[in-house]
Write a structure and sequence with these properties.
The chain contains 7 helices and no strands. The chain is mainly α. It has 2 domains: about 55 residues, no CATH class; about 35 residues. The longest helix is centred in the last third of the chain and has 18 residues. The chain starts with a helix and ends with a helix.
């Protein structure tokens, strides 16, 4: 399958697919939501895609950064993630008192 066809099927850009494929994707890692779209674009289950990469969905979540974890586990958007991180920082500050 071409990058163009996968991008069309997954509703992503060809450039995004190209950066993922070449390893030049600049963010930490694609979200589970994006990986799911790619898997659907390939007509493959997400679990198969992750297992071929040698990881389980649980491994992906366990090793993710806080924003990636929140996006993956709870399907939060960027504003919600910022709110949760602000609250975590508040709690850390409060616990140091």
């Amino acid at each position: 399958m071409t990058q163009e066809k996968l991008a069309e099927n997954a509703k992503l850009t060809r450039g995004y697919i190209s950066r993922l494929e070449s390893g030049t994707y600049t963010d930490e890692s694609p979200s589970i939501k994006t990986l799911r779209r790619i898997a659907e674009g390939l007509s493959e289950p997400l679990e198969l895609i992750l297992s071929k990469a040698g990881i389980t969905q649980e491994d992906y979540i366990k090793n993710a950064s806080t924003p990636t974890f929140l996006r993956t586990k709870y399907n939060l958007n960027e504003g919600q993630i910022r709110s949760v991180e602000s609250y975590i920082n508040f709690l850390k500050k409060d616990l140091k008192k």
